[in-house]
Amino acid sequence: MEIIIFLAILGLGIFGFNWLMGYRNNHITIDLDDRYVDFKEYVEAIQIELANQGREVSYIGSRKFIIDGQTYIFIERNVSMGGVPLQRTILKPEK
Question: Which of 46, 70, 82, 95 is deepest in the core (most CB within 10 A)?
């Protein structure tokens, strides 16, 4: 019984972390090489990365992008990976 409880907690922990980090269907996750403090530069870097992936992209303001005809909301996460902070970009489809 204790093993089942442990495995359930472990599974929820892994699932919760993946959910928080943007690993879901239809989400676009980008990890850029540089760290951006200036929001305008960050948006430009996202647009360049998506264009390099062959996507059609434009920023419409208020943290919203149009990517391949679909509206996405821009979410930023900062994660410590081995002591070095990683700036993760998550683009969530708007419903």
Answer: 46
Name residues whose C-beta falls within 8 Å of residue 72's C-beta, 6 or more positions apart in sequence.
28, 64, 65, 66, 91, 92, 93, 94
For residues 59 and 43, the answer to whether their CB atoms sit within 8 Å is yes
Quote the CA–CA distance of 85 and 32 in Å, as a whole number: 12
- Summarize pLDDT for 33-45 with one digit per residue, the tens: 888 999 999 999 9
> Which pLDDT score, from 0 to 100, does residue 23 have?
47
Burial classification of residue 75, based on how many CB atoms lie within 10 Å of its CB (0-12 exposed, 13-18 middle, 19 or more buried):
middle
Report how far residue 93's alpha carbon sits from residue 95's, in angstroms, rounded to the nearest whole number. 6
Dmax over Cα atoms in the chain, in whole Å?
A: 53
**Residues in Cβ contact with 58 at an 8 Å cutoff, skipping those fewer than 6 apart:** 47, 65, 66
Is residue 21 within 8 A of residue 79, CB to CB? The reply is yes
